[in-house]
Amino acid sequence: YRKGFEPLVEGFLHLPYGNLERVESFLKENAEDVASIIVEPIQGEGGINVPPPGFLKGLRELADQFNVLLIVDEIQTGLMRTGTFLASEQENVVPDILLLGKGLGGGLPIGFLASRKDVGEKMGIGGHTSTMAGNPVVCASGKALLEALSKEVSSSRIESSSKLFFENLTRIAESSNFIREVRGKGLMIGIECRKPVGNLLKIMEEKGVLALNAGINVVRFLPPLIINRDEILKVCETLEESVKLVEEA
Ligand SMILES: Cc1ncc(COP(=O)(O)O)c(C=O)c1O
């Protein structure tokens, strides 16, 4: 997933996702040289990878133990996507720096960083800014989005939509050779296939369902949080028909 993005920013080391032992053994040897751990609660672009339970909490404990910052990127997982306002809440984790974006702008481009007060103060005025930062129109859209989210999207709504998705997708996967696994949490869903999904996505688009891939062989569903029962069933039915067409081809 780094291909095409080189040269990468220097000074970052990538460790296997979900593997606390590797993080711990690295920090034991190198904590002096480490400023922070940056992590997604569920990997988005990487293929909707859900880490083992306790991974985020374990990272929080290691960050405290070794005196490094924990930066949690909730740009895909945040804003109720996985059933709670932030996915980190599910492990009672409070990040030192939190990132949000995408849907927060309600369609307008936005990026958001919040930090522990003392961490933010160390950045100094102007230490973290950009030309368009704090744009009033975009911030107004973000404020409206948060109000609408709290009125219209509850944890129980996400839970029941998620259950309906997973019940149908699991059934479809069981009778398909093309699908390897269905995984995710809340309304962040990945369908890992045995082959690249480009053609499948094209067929689904022709049938009126827009979806993106995550990596080469994962179909990603991150639908609007207000998706209703009929729409979920339509999406699943379209996936089922499209998978059949791909299998027959
Ligand atoms: C988890 C995550 N973090 C960060 C980004 C980058 O966001 P932006 O394009 O707003 O810089 C993305 C974009 O896909 C993302 O999925």
Structural notes for this entry:
The protein is of the alpha/beta class. The protein has helices at residues 20-30, 55-66, 117-123, 136-152, 155-174, 198-206, 229-248; strands at 36-39, 69-73, 97-101, 111-115, 179-185, 188-193, 212-213, 218-221. The protein has two domains: 20-152, Aspartate Aminotransferase, domain 2; 155-248, Alpha-Beta Complex (Aspartate Aminotransferase, domain 1), CATH 3.90.1150.10. The strands form two sheets. The chain has a four-stranded mixed sheet with strand order 1-2-3-4. A four-stranded antiparallel sheet has the order 5-6-8-7, with helices on one face. It contains seven helices and eight strands. It starts with 19 loop residues before the first helix and ends with a helix. The chain is globular and about 55 Å long. Helix 5 runs parallel beside helix 7 (229-248). The structure holds pyridoxal-5'-phosphate.
In short:
The chain is α/β, with parallel strands linked by helices and 249 residues long. It has two domains: 20-152, 3-Layer(aba) Sandwich (Aspartate Aminotransferase, domain 2); 155-248, Alpha-Beta Complex (Aspartate Aminotransferase, domain 1).
Furnish the topology, listing elements before pairings:
Blueprint: H1 20-30, E1 36-39, H2 55-66, E2 69-73, E3 97-101, E4 111-115, H3 117-123, H4 136-152, H5 155-174, E5 179-185, E6 188-193, H6 198-206, E7 212-213, E8 218-221, H7 229-248
Bound molecules: pyridoxal-5'-phosphate (PLP).
